[in-house]
């Protein structure tokens, strides 16, 4: 019972972060600020879902596999964010500023 | 006005879809039409008839062997079409096209790809070989190998990638899915059964389970290798075309 409650809490946190990330991806003004919520999805959202699943499963092998998946996810998603951001900077994409929107 | 029309359209579509969902048979309903004819037979007899612990593998490679061999042929035809239109890359010419991207790949990405690529390939080997008893199989594993090589090629360039998987190594393997499928199928005829019966059902009855299992694994490996090589060759042909079009710096 306690385990189920913990699972539900962690999975809800993960789902909440995915919701935030998707909203941010749609609502943020430029590539740099969009990158910020979309990488949060992969790291915090997916990882807390996986923590929830690990608590639910409770078997050692499943937890080890989930930790491995989490490591790969953290590595690849961070690298992906880095690559997108770096390429945007190198291509001289100007960051969004508040004044621009007020002028329009 | 536009907004109202689109809102009306979407809500009408939503109501329609909800009606369809409401009239669908329930999840796990034993009397739904999909469960009444072939599924019970597959579930009851597949394991002893196909000797494959995974029913899906049994269905794909045994009951629907013709279908799968057709799919393999379609993949091979796709490669043949790409090569007929774009032509194969010529290795001597690739050298001058190295890394034309305006943004050179960052060391972080290079290191991570170098670190992760072996794990991806290991996972694909696992997917191919374990397709017998768990979800997975040749097509999926081949696609994962192809994806890992695609990542490698986009980061390190076509020259490095085609040095690791040279053309003379790819060319014979591209047709392997097709060829192995038909060799195994014809072995079934030689053994006195029908095409694709996975060898001699009449001879050597006590040997049969392991023979059938091994033949299935061989077919899986063939599909995996062939699929991966086809994907890689299509990618290389398309990249060479792209790089030839790019303006010379």
UniProtKB/TrEMBL annotation, chain A:
InterPro entries: PhaG_MnhG_YufB. The chain crosses the membrane at residues 6-29, 67-89. It holds the Pfam family PhaG_MnhG_YufB. One of its GO terms (molecular function) is sodium:proton antiporter activity. The keyword Transmembrane applies. The keyword Transmembrane applies. It comes from the Bacteria. Keywords: Membrane, Transmembrane, Transmembrane helix. Belongs to the CPA3 antiporters (TC 2.A.63) subunit G family. This is Cation:proton antiporter. It comes from Candidatus Solincola sediminis.
From TrEMBL, chain B:
GO terms for cellular component: plasma membrane. The chain crosses the membrane at residues 70-87, 108-129, 141-159, 171-191, 211-237. Residues 108-225 form the Na+/H+ antiporter MnhB subunit-related protein domain. InterPro entries: CPA3_antiporter_subunitB, MnhB, MrpA_C/MbhE. Residues 33-88 form the MrpA C-terminal/MbhE domain. It is found in: Cell membrane. It is a multi-pass membrane protein. Keywords: Cell membrane, Membrane, Transmembrane, Transmembrane helix. PANTHER family: NA(+)/H(+) ANTIPORTER SUBUNIT B, NA(+)_H(+) ANTIPORTER SUBUNIT B. Belongs to the CPA3 antiporters (TC 2.A.63) subunit B family. This is Uncharacterized protein. It comes from Candidatus Solincola sediminis. The lineage of its organism: Bacteria, Bacillati, Actinomycetota, Candidatus Geothermincolia, Candidatus Geothermincolales.
């Amino acid at each position: 019972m306690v385990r189920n409650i913990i699972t539900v809490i962690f999975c809800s946190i993960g789902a909440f972060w995915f919701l935030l990330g998707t909203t941010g991806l749609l609502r943020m003004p430029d590539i740099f600020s969009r990158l910020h919520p979309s990488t949060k999805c992969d790291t915090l959202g997916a990882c807390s879902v996986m923590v929830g699943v690990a608590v639910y499963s409770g078997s050692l092998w499943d937890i080890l596999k989930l930790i491995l998946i989490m490591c790969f996810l953290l590595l690849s998603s961070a690298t992906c964010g880095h690559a997108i951001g770096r390429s945007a900077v190198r291509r001289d994409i100007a960051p969004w500023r508040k004044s621009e929107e007020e002028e329009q | 006005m536009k907004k109202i029309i689109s809102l009306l359209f979407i809500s009408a579509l939503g109501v329609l879809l909800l009606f369809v969902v409401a009239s669908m048979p329930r999840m796990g309903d034993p009397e739904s039409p999909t469960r009444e004819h072939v599924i019970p037979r597959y579930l009851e007899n597949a394991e002893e008839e196909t000797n494959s612990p995974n029913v899906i593998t049994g269905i794909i490679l045994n009951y629907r062997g013709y279908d799968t061999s057709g799919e393999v042929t379609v993949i091979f035809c796709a490669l043949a079409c790409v090569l007929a239109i774009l032509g194969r890359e010529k290795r001597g010419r690739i050298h001058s096209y190295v890394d034309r991207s305006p943004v050179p790949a960052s060391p972080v990405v290079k290191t991570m790809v170098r670190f992760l690529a072996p794990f991806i390939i290991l996972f694909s080997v696992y997917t191919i070989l374990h397709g017998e008893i768990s979800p997975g199989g040749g097509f999926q594993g081949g696609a994962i190998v192809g994806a890992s090589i695609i990542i490698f090629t986009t980061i390190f360039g076509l020259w490095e990638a085609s040095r690791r998987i040279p053309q003379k190594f790819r060319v014979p393997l591209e047709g392997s899915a097709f060829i192995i499928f038909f060799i195994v199928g014809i072995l079934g005829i030689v053994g006195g059964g029908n095409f694709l019966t996975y060898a001699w059902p009449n001879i050597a009855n006590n040997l049969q389970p392991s023979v059938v299992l091994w033949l299935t694994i061989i077919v899986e490996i063939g599909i995996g290798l062939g699929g991966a090589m086809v994907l890689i060759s299509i990618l290389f042909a398309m990249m060479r075309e792209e790089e030839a079009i790019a303006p010379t710096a």
